[in-house]
Design brief:
Length: 194
């Protein structure tokens, strides 16, 4: 095991860190899973800040993804993960509930459809335009929009005639759910999607 991993695994500042060191294997092939395990354990706030910073900047994307998804992080560290080279890390960040409006805006313009889809699914009260996602070039993002019933009947009506069958199905399902709850979906016109 390399020196940095040994230091992260054996840091004896807390009983929890000592227990972590005992639970993980010290074989070289197990370094990334062990660091992922530690990253997922950082929500207990027992791991020193410098270790958290090292994990956020780890060379293994799996470790950075674990930090993005599970750790309590300072806004500056979240900013670092929002611009990560690995789309899986950015997608994990997009699912966080403690993102700033600037971080959400940055992720909403991400080149990866996965990141944009995660934003649509997990952030229902964000300041970006749902209409932009309803017109997204990737059908998986449009399908995520069409699966929501809180976005406006006009947008759902527009997505009900999308070129992709999965998007049409999701929009039709959402419109049906709204009708079952007494919403008049017939009287709304589909807007022009931009």
């Amino acid at each position: 095991m390399n020196a940095a991993a040994t230091e992260l695994l054996t840091h004896g500042q807390s009983p929890h860190a000592a227990a972590l060191a005992q639970r993980v294997s010290y074989a070289e092939d197990d370094v990334v899973p062990a660091l992922e395990y530690i990253a997922r354990s950082t929500h207990r706030n027992e791991i020193p800040r410098y270790v958290v910073v090292r994990l956020v900047n780890d060379k293994a994307w799996q470790v950075r993804r674990a930090m993005a998804a599970h750790a309590k992080l300072e806004p500056a560290l979240i900013d670092r993960l929002v611009t990560d080279i690995a789309f899986a890390v950015r997608a994990a960040v997009a699912g966080r509930t403690d993102l700033s409006p600037a971080q959400i805006e940055r992720l909403s313009r991400d080149r990866s459809w996965t990141v944009r889809r995660v934003l649509v699914i997990f952030h229902q009260d964000v300041p970006f335009s749902i209409g932009r996602f309803a017109a997204d070039p990737d059908w998986q993002v449009r399908e995520a929009v069409a699966s929501r019933t809180d976005i406006g009947i006009g947008i759902l009506n527009g997505l009900a005639s999308d070129e992709n069958a999965d998007v049409r199905y999701a929009a039709t399902h959402s419109l049906t759910a709204l009708m079952e709850h007494g919403v008049d979906v017939e009287s709304h016109q589909a807007p022009t999607l931009q």
